Amino acid sequence: MSNMINERDICKDRGKGGRMRNSYPFLERPWFLVVALLGLIGGAFLISSWIRTSDGSLLCPMVGAKARVAENYEATSMQLKAILHYATSHIVPQQSLSEISVTLDVLKSLAHPCNFLVFGLGHDSLMWASFNPGGTTIFLEEDPKWVQTVLKDAPYLQAHTVQYRTQLRQSDSLLSSYRSEPDCLPSNAYLRGNHRCKLALDNLPDEVYDRVWDLIMIDAPRGYFPEAPGRMAAIFSAAVMARNRKGSGVTHVFLHDVDRKVEKTFAEEFLCRKFLVKGVGRLWHFEIPPASNKSHHSATRFC
Ligand SMILES: C[S@@+](CC[C@H](N)C(=O)[O-])C[C@H]1O[C@@H](n2cnc3c(N)ncnc32)[C@H](O)[C@@H]1O
Fold first, then answer.
1. Same domain, 236 and 95
2. Ligand 1 lined by 121 (C-beta under 6 Å)
């Protein structure tokens, strides 16, 4: 038998100068066979333990990484409701994809559940709340009937009615006269119970005053006809909340419809160009440091 093998080898494999080589050297060296066998057993053991501990990531690292991400990520019931809602509704939020992405990117970058205050209740509300899983998202709405309508279908949203003391047609006089009211001045501006300053939202639920807001979205109240409340008080109050922020970090303020005169001028007066970090479409994004950071703020002017 061994002679037959050797003959076959001789026919197949001839070295230079006609010198014959043996193709199966391990047959002549039993130690080689033992080492190879041990290597095979060790390799099989290693591979099987990797597969058990890393979901096959050794065989397909990308699949393993994705599986781990999926494992840690569980959609909240609010997010599932949002998917169902937007998948079956033909009414979509008014902000564009690129505008919405500005806020979503900030929420993702903060990487923790946030306190998110949103002016207005609308077709975007379920989306904003779903973008902030585990966090607190509160909506402030001017129209009590609209609050009821929205909450009937989405009782899991947290919404409060706000009474505005302003009208859009007063915007010019409010801007030119607010400095003559001491309670409107940046050095001592406050909101809760500030009846003298008409720009201050003085009658909000305590939770809104007591919470430190990480993000404030101003996409309401309505400001497209003279009797509408306009966004003057929302912009002023967001500026005061950001200035009075307790602790570290900035307040991210997003303002929509900056193509309109009132939104633009009140933003430049209270939210400040120097704190504007991004403008996309009709959305401006401000990062406002607390007033305790004296290097960024003046005592006499908001900007
Ligand atoms: C200026 S709009 C902005 C809407 C929001 N960005 C959206 O995508 O739905 C916000 C205000 O419009 C009013 N509003 C929005 N949708 C409404 C509706 N379907 N019926 C009545 N009022 C509505 C509410 O007072 C709300 O605060």
1. yes
2. yes
CA of residue 122 to ligand 1 center, whole Å? 5
Atom 21 in ligand 1: residue holding the nearest Cα: 146
Same domain, 283 and 176: yes
Task: Examine the domain organization and report whether 225 and 271 are in the same domain.
Answer: yes
In the chain, which ranges are continuous DSSP H helix? 2-12, 30-53, 61-72, 77-88, 97-110, 125-130, 144-153, 171-177, 206-210, 232-243, 261-266
By residue range, what is the domain housing residue 146? Answer: 77-288
Check if 221 has its Cβ closer than 6 Å to any atom of ligand 1. yes
Amino acid sitting at position 227: E
Using DSSP bridges, classify how beta strands 251-256 and 283-288 pair: parallel, antiparallel or unpaired.
antiparallel
Residues 279, 147 within the same domain: yes
Choose among 211, 191, 215, 213: nearest CA to 203.
191
Q: Determine the distance separating the centroid of ligand 1 and the alpha carbon of 137, expressed in angstroms.
A: 17
**Ligand 1 midpoint to CA 128 (Å):** 14
95 in the same domain as 14: no
From first to last of the 303 residues of the chain, give the pLDDT tens digit.
Answer: 343 334 333 333 333 333 334 444 444 555 544 455 455 555 554 444 444 434 433 333 343 444 444 455 689 999 999 999 999 999 999 999 999 999 999 999 998 899 999 999 999 999 999 999 999 999 999 999 999 999 999 999 999 999 999 999 999 999 999 999 999 999 989 999 999 999 999 999 999 999 999 999 999 999 999 999 999 999 999 999 999 999 789 999 999 999 999 999 999 999 999 999 999 999 999 999 999 866 676 777 999
Whether residue 87 is found in the same domain as residue 236: yes
Kindly give the distance from the C-alpha atom of residue 164 to the centroid of ligand 1, in angstroms, as a whole number: 16
Measured CA to CA, the distance from residue 102 to residue 92 in angstroms comes to 17
Using the atom order of ligand 1, give the atom closest to the CA of residue 92: 8
